[in-house]
Amino acid sequence: MAILSEIRERSMFLIVIIGLALFAFVASPKDILDFFNSSKVNAVGEVNGESISRTDFAAKVEAYKSNAGATTSEMQAVNAVWNGVLSERIYKDQLSKAGIVVGEKDVWDAIVSNPNIQNAAIFKNEIGSFDEDKFKEYLSNLKESSKEASNTAWANWLANEKNIKTNLEKQAYNQLVKLGIGASLKEGQRNYIESQTKMSGSLVYLPFNGVDAKEITVSSEEIASYVNEHAKEFEVAASRDIKFVKFDIVASPEDEEALKNELKFEIEPFKTAKNSVEYATENGTDIPVDAKYAHKNNLPTVVADAVFAANKGAVVGPYKFQNHLRISKIEEIIKMPDSVKASHILVSFAGSRAADATVTRTEAEAKKLADSILNVVQKRKSKFSSLAKKFSADKSNADKGGQLDWFTYTQMVPEFRDYVFLNKKGSMGVVKTIFGYHIVKIDAQKNIQKAVQLTTIAREIDASESTENEIFENAETLAYNLSSGKNLKELKKENNYNVRPLFGLSELDEDIAGLGKNRSIVRWAFDTDRNVNDVKRFDLDKGYAVVVVTNKTEKGLMSTVKASSKVKSILINEKKAALLLEKMEGDDLASVAKTNDANVQSFANITPDAPTISGVGIEPGVVGAMYATETGAFQKGVIGKKGVFAFVVDSKEAPEVLTSYEGAKNSLSTANQNAASAQIYKALEEASAVQDHRASMY
After folding, report:
1. How many of the other CB atoms lie within 10 Å of CB of 108?
2. Would the pTM count as exceeding 0.70?
3. Where are the domains of the chain?
4. Alpha-carbon gap, residue 497 to 245, rounded angstroms
5. pLDDT tens digit string along 295-327?
6. Which listed residue, of 123, 481, 497, 659, carries a Cα 20 to 30 Å from 182's Cα?
7. What architecture is the 339-446 domain classified under in CATH?
8. Residue 149: what pLDDT?
9. CATH topology for the 253-335 domain
10. Strand partners, 304
């Protein structure tokens, strides 16, 4: 009994030991080492043998999301951080080898020379110049604030400094590489002459499309052979093809009718309510209640006639607008212009939206100043323009005496809008808005017409519980039928499903056309045990999707089937070229033309820099061959992009001799360096050993 008791106490220990023994039996020595290597388990990836810590990576992702805002998705942040980390690691070895070091002073100089820092009002002195001491003080305060647990501003700043340092290092490395890719004076001269030499002569053109397609056959073996010979061009990442049927949760006609009946019961109490806004708020409305006025053309067409035919106090509806059923009560009927012209003097105060860092006046002081200005302009209207120029914080129109262009009812903030549209022309007053205090003068009004003020109760047309259950059952039924081996094509015909295909889903994709952001579908499709024809139902934001895997492509060479369309056209042209070369008999253009029932056509002023042949198109290879051929020499069998050519170059006109080829040298040097800039990082990335485990972790 004692032995059995001891076994029970140590059962978990025994389970672990047995599990490890079994693992050791089936696993390779490398697998065992990796299992116990925490850096392998917790790595998002690896660059040149150096692991990227999952913990550090996750922290950077969260920081990125925090800085980028709510619209940034998880995968957008992951990919952005990965690209940054990858770039940093790839450059790391190169910087060490090149002996490039960026010091603190270099980073500081880059920071303080940034226009955003230079032009920030908080870092300027009394004369409006950038004050470095003020900036240092700001950073000191930022560092001090980091002692608060919730404050991440200092950490973000340090990350920003690191990014600046990294970018400076990259720039220094790229500049070092580019310095070695210039051009000599002789190279500049040669490039100038070669690219600008004008050539004239005659040619015979045998187009590929002149060969009967029936004469050409391309086998799958030939396609496969071409793919293998050009493996670099046909390397593909892992991908999946899927088909899906989406089941949207939408209200049925019965749901809409039930909601309509519900709103009908609201009409009478809504009509008799003393405070319509209060009633609408308390009894539930899915749109904000406002007190705006509206002309007929600003109302939904479906209800405009009914509203303008009704009297004050009447309730119109229910009517449907923007997936809501609504009832609207007519609160007021007035005459109102459809557009107004006004002038204003804006007095801002500390904290108002129009105030910059230099504004220190309080709200009470701003109100006092606004009242004082109003008192002046009411007595002397002619002073309005000069006072606007002197006091108005709205610099967009201050020089015009505060005059605003014609505007409609919906273009201004509510307080300003209501004053100028509900008062008469010539009225003046003080209006407070989020921007400050406005001294307002109504200059003109036009198209005065009937307008109504409505209070509206709106209810969203939602699917009922029974409708949602029915939609769920439909999705489940399809998933079950497909899992049972039934054919999707037949089920589509029987049930009128909208089956949507999606080709080339990548392992790190997030957005799925037609389904939105859904990493769970992508991860499922790329599971190691996923097979073609596997089926699963997924929950969406407002519905379901039944997804079927229709094809799997693993990382490596593109399949013969998928490469077929691209390779077949290449091979067809190669075979056409071979046939045309056989037919290109003769020792001059005339005999070649006669043999092939073609014409001898002339060309003039063609240059390597502008390799367009009239009647053919752009043929850089052919024009390059023309430049390399001696004047007067007959050349045939030159294969171009669109056919096979024979030609004679009668003349070559070199460009004007320059007194100096410094400009040509500089142009070639710049072109070489620009080309290199685009390729440096790509070349370094291709030369690096990169392992990417993002897809399995996010």
Report:
1. 14
2. no
3. 1-36, 198-218+560-653, 238-249+464-554, 253-335, 339-446
4. 7
5. 999 999 999 999 999 999 999 999 999 999 999
6. 659
7. Roll (3.10)
8. 58
9. Chitinase A; domain 3 (3.10.50)
10. none
